[in-house]
Automatic annotation (TrEMBL):
Gene3D superfamilies: Cobalamin-binding domain, Methionine synthase domain
CC annotations in GO: cytosol
Domain annotation B12-binding: ranges: 87-214
GO molecular function term, any single one: metal ion binding
Keyword field: Cobalt, Metal-binding
Protein name: Cobalamin-binding domain protein
GO biological process: homocysteine metabolic process; tetrahydrofolate metabolic process
Amino acid sequence: MDDFSKLAKLFLEGNEDDAIHYLSQMGPTPNRLHLYEQFLTPTMYHIGDLWERNEISVADEHLATAVCDFVLSQLDSMEKRKVEKGTSKALLFGIEEEQHYLGLKMVASTFREYGWDVRYLGPNLPLDHALTQVNRYKPDVIGVSAALSYRLPVLKDVIEHLIHLDWSPTVLIGGRMAKEYDLSSFASDQVVVMKDLHQLEAWIEGNEEDINATS
Ligand code: B12
């Protein structure tokens, strides 16, 4: 059985403790991002395949999601790298009606790992409400997540509003849609499309100094 099938089994049994124990054995100093990309994400994709093939029920899939969410929160609260807390700010949300949020939660955790101040607003946020918080918080980076292709028009509208904010924040676009479809037409100096957390990490490492200089 491969690693994510083992983890999927624990998720589907609702076995939070063993799932955390299993992940804690993955190295002397397990790196959070590695655990997200190598274990949690493929496990949830596997759960999606089982669901699509009717091998598990909707209730099973909900249970697995809840366990994954719990495990993710536990990993996020593990000791962070010793980085100086900076002044960079990231605000994250899922566009209206989008309910898939585990990826965005991993993004929040990755920014925190780098000492960023993070406001994670969760999924399904109408643009008007997102803008209220955005204008109050004035983040350097706004991360948006979308999974389903029929959200493309809404995503386009969200990007259009965010790039016209007067302090020109960087807009990061991610989620299943960015993985499965070519969204390069959205990309610009201000908008970056990302397929995974490795790209996010490389971006943070490459841009932190610039952002701190303008904050
Ligand atoms: C769990 C789940 C749900 C849960 C979500 C709960 C939650 N808390 O998130 C619930 C039950 C609500 C759900 C509902 C639905 N779902 Co659903 N779901 C899934 C499942 C199994 C896992 C999703 C997940 O968490 N993946 C793990 C995360 C970590 O992956 P990720 O989102 O891709 O994130 C990674 C990157 O994309 C990136 N990332 C994500 N966001 C961002 C943002 C930024 C800024 C950056 C930099 C990076 C980034 O970081 C992550 C790590 O690399 C997927 C299967 C799959 N293949 O994804 C189906 C899946 C996405 N769902 C699907 C469907 C069809 C639906 C429904 C339409 C079902 C229905 N009929 O009701 C609804 C739609 C709900 C809605 N309005 O949005 C289909 C989509 C198929 C398609 N062709 O589009 C999938 C693929 C299942 C399948 N195989 O059929 N779902």
